[in-house]
Amino acid sequence: MRSARGLIGGDPVEPLRLFPLRYPWAYAHVQQAKRNTWFPEEAPLHDDVQDWHERLTEEERQAVEILLGFFNPMESLVTSNLLLALYPHLTAPEVRLYLARQAWEEANHAMAFEYVIKTLPVDRERVFGMLEEHPAVAAKAAFQRRLTAEILKPDLDLATIEGRQRLLRNLVGFFVILEGIFFYSGFAFALSFRRRNCLRGLGTIIDWVLKDESLHLSFGVHLIQAFLQENPEVRTPALGEELRRMILEAVALEEAYNQALLPRPVLGLHAGSLNAYVRYVADRRLEELGLGPHFHTPNPFRWLAAEIDLPEQVNFFEARNVNYEVARPRE
Length: 331
Ligand SMILES: [Fe+2]
Ligand SMILES: [Fe+2]
Description:
- One of its GO terms (biological process) is deoxyribonucleotide biosynthetic process.
- Fe cation 2 binds at residues 106, 179, 213, 216.
- The chain crosses the membrane at residues 171-193.
- Keywords: Deoxyribonucleotide synthesis, Iron, Membrane, Metal-binding, Oxidoreductase, Transmembrane, Transmembrane helix.
- The protein has helices spanning 24-35, 46-54, 58-86, 93-119, 124-133, 135-152, 161-182, 184-195, 200-230, 237-261, 271-288, 302-307.
- By secondary structure, the protein is mainly alpha-helical.
- It has one domain: Ribonucleotide Reductase, subunit A (Orthogonal Bundle), CATH 1.10.620.
- It is globular.
- The termini are close together.
- The protein binds fe (ii) ion (FE2) (2 copies).
- Residues 75, 78, 106, 109, 213 line the site of one fe (ii) ion (FE2).
């Protein structure tokens, strides 16, 4: 029999004993993730290469490079955080199963962006240099790295409220902010090309990544809610305020990034509309954390909601409508 322990505090090297499930939502996310399996090369990019040469303007090409220069390293940062910061501490078996699956998906995303970078005639040096050299990309990466570093500090003690609050900040920073805010202007921008019947292969890859990321976000929100339920003492008004500030800081970083992505309008999109979208998305994330919306901005991209409203997808636009199948725990 498994002992009646929670999300944290188990033996980190104990072999997996899954049933009976304690967190059926985590197992349901694993099952859904399996159904979402895809491989980058299934999306042909021949037409994208032709589009690159014949249809894209220089400004559009530069914006795509900034997009790839952000997405690609972020996949690595999130993988490191999962394996180094979260896996050692989150010891519930079905949660670990999902973290392992998610780590594979993030690796698959890194390979997918690598496939795009190597197939499109992008300036490879510029794309990979973006993380160091582009202030808006570097600032977002630094924001995430700081959260991972906080967990890796030797003084982390999850027996204390402070330690568990530190873990919660990491969960919010990665699952809600990185998975749930930082990726979304990129998604909107990339899918705008497909809307013009352009870069359709990249659009397909973005669809698949988006499907995975929305499941990661959904898993993260469930995880945070379960963690707060088990550790109600960490939920202080001061921490709530701090989480709200973190999300607002992330929105400011994202707005600077959007400005860098689109110094001038591209494809009819301008930084202002992407910023409005980010504010709309951030409000949904604040609501999921029970913190209440801040911006009250309407969704400027209704077309995007329609475009990605696929079956079997967690609908992150209607955060409460979490569309996954609940597994039946085996007796
Ligand atoms: Fe990813
Ligand atoms: Fe992710």
